[in-house]
Design brief:
124 residues, mainly alpha, 2 domains
């Protein structure tokens, strides 16, 4: 799984395993990886028996099988917020990109790759 000290998926996985009371039993058997794609590659290559990755990452590989999906209600509510940098070098391009991400075609792409798209928050 992802390194619990540096990789978000590792931090989330550890919290989940602790909640189940499994962390201490499994900790010595885990191989920390530098990122979620390294975990996925280790599983796909057969170098490890299993790994904990995001559903969206597992979906890109035809060499892995999802054995268990953590129910959404038991996840930490992972989100990818977006904000414009006030003094960014290309404010118009950034604004156009933000507007594009709110359009139906961008939402369709995110959903096609397994992401849940939440409604946009109102601007302050």
């Amino acid at each position: 799984m992802g390194d619990v000290k540096t990789v978000p998926v590792g931090t989330y996985a550890k919290a989940y395993l602790e909640r189940l009371g499994l962390w201490h039993a499994l900790e010595s058997k885990l191989i920390p990886c530098e990122n979620v794609r390294a975990v996925l590659a280790a599983v796909a290559s057969g170098n490890v028996d299993a790994g904990i990755v995001y559903k969206t990452d597992a979906a890109i590989s035809k060499q892995v099988k999802v054995a268990f999906e953590i129910p959404a209600a038991e996840t930490p509510g992972i989100s990818y917020p977006l904000a414009l940098v006030k003094a960014g070098p290309q404010p118009e391009a950034a604004q156009r990109f933000l507007a594009f991400l709110g359009r139906d075609e961008a939402t369709a792409v995110f959903r096609r790759f397994g992401f849940i798209v939440l409604p946009a928050s109102p601007s302050p």
